[in-house]
Amino acid sequence: MIIHYKNKRLEQVLIGVNILAAAIVTASFVALFGFDKPLAAASVLYAVQTALLVVFIAEKIIRLLNAASKAEFWRANWFEAPLLLALGIAVLGAGRWFGGPALAEAAAVRHFAVGIYLVLQVVVKVCRTVVNLAASGRNPTQVLIASFLVLIISGAGLLMLPRSSATENVSFVDALFTATSATCVTGLIVKDTGSDFSLMGQLIILSLIQLGGLGIVVFGAVFALLLGQALSLSESVAMQDLLSARTLGRIGNMIAFIFVGTIFIEAVGAVSIFWMWDDVPGKVTNIQQQWFVSIFHSISAFCNAGFSLFSDSFVSYNKSWAVYAVICPLIIMGGLGFGVLYDLSNIAVDRVKRFFKRRFNRRHSFSMETPKRMRLQTKIVLSVSASLIILGTLAILLFGRYADAGASAQNPGILGALFQSITARTAGFNTIDISTLSEPGRFILMLLMFVGGSPGSTAGGIKTVTLAVIIMTVFAALRKRQEVEMFKRSIRIVVVGRAITVTLLFVAVLFTATLALSITEANRFAMSDIAFEASSALGTVGLTTGITPFLTTAGKLIIIAVMLIGRLGPLTLLAALTFNLKPVRYNYPGEAIIVG
Length: 596
Description:
Blueprint: H1 8-33, H2 42-66, H3 70-76, H4 80-93, H5 103-134, H6 140-159, H7 172-183, H8 193-196, H9 199-214, H10 216-226, H11 233-243, H12 251-272, H13 287-302, H14 321-336, H15 338-360, H16 376-399, H17 413-423, H18 439-451, H19 464-478, E1 484-486, E2 489-491, H20 493-520, H21 527-538, H22 553-568, H23 570-577
Antiparallel strand pairs: 1-2
Helix pairs in contact: 1-2, 1-5, 2-5, 4-5, 5-10, 6-7, 6-9, 6-23, 7-9, 7-22, 9-10, 10-12, 12-13, 12-14, 13-14, 14-17, 16-17, 16-18, 16-19, 18-21, 19-20, 20-21, 20-22, 21-22
């Protein structure tokens, strides 16, 4: 929603003041909490934050007076009044209703309330800026790439702070690697998440996973919707391009569904695995840590990140029912794609409505609309995902018995094979030691990592729909059919071309990365380990044979680049480079050639 202001120059000045104030807010929190001791006196930093609070309130008053329509301003900023009311109650009630009567406790409550208000203001302003940039007419894919790069660099800077580390400070390369892996929801690590990072560092990693998994541009649109800003046409077009949604009218509903559905699924997952940690005594020591571990792994599983607070991932919990009954469904739902989940939820709601209409309102039984049918995209995703899980499990069971490593190879068993078949589709958790898996078993995992999840999901890879289109293209050629068909529907030739392009680009990146790593890590690791590492990074999976922490600096930088390419997708990067290219208005004469 665009607010019109009477004085344009004054609005430009306020934008500059907002940017400067947001930067100072961030710097004040870093100086206050990022180091073992605050960089300045705490009283000075709290005074700076109080001054910034006054600046933000004054900015709102000036904008209200400068707005051409006061009603328009209040509709866009309806949340400001209750937010200021809550702040006022917290500040005035400190020492009376909140905290103890002591001056120090009352001051702590006031500082906490002011800090929460400032953080919310900065988050709102950043999200609005992201949405405005995405809808500014510029290439939305370039905005997405820039958002990821800013998020990664900011995350790396935060992870380098002394308070983020539990032991020694993290180097820039290791911090950049961890931030990239978290933002790209990969899960490859050079530092142990549970032991090398403090609670602050783990919270930073968790925030990067959540933001990277859902996409920071989508997050910006979600907050814009929550703040009452209806998406303009250009904003809706930007969101449509990023979410691959079919119609503009569904964009707002889709974004709201993503936010609410994600929070709901992750909350249910966290509650469901709360008691799982009791299966291995000593891993989790108190109830606060138990809740944090549950929330962390629930978010990591649904976002297909693969980050774990345990150095052996879920190897110690390979006998726990929750790993297979909760973690696996979280991974699968995160990899299906929000479009598929949205379609399934609409169908389920429609079925429930029809049931109650038939049961309690019989006169409408013969006048009801046609029941909603499953979209072609949903049918393809569900069928291919189920096939890959089943075939992957059988293949790992079969080929896991044959090993070049002899007696050192590990037979994963049925549950282990099932879990690895699911997690190899970009989740990155493991219940068995990957380094002890047979060479054929690792190759099966590489194939699954290459395919990945589904479009519009938190997963990587070429995607399940791409695989289906390529297989059916081959099938159509063998049957001498001119059109590619699936579930009695024809697939457009442009979709076939896009599927082939994505696959070839992925193959090119995989071979290039493997070649580059074989040079930087020459005579240090086996070629199979290097290829597995490159596949895991490109598929944003996170499985490893154990070589990640021992890569050279050049090798780590290569993996960083590959993880970013795998998260954004080669086609996204190509689209960013070729945006606004005008199509030619002529065709050359055709001539027959022989292939195959």
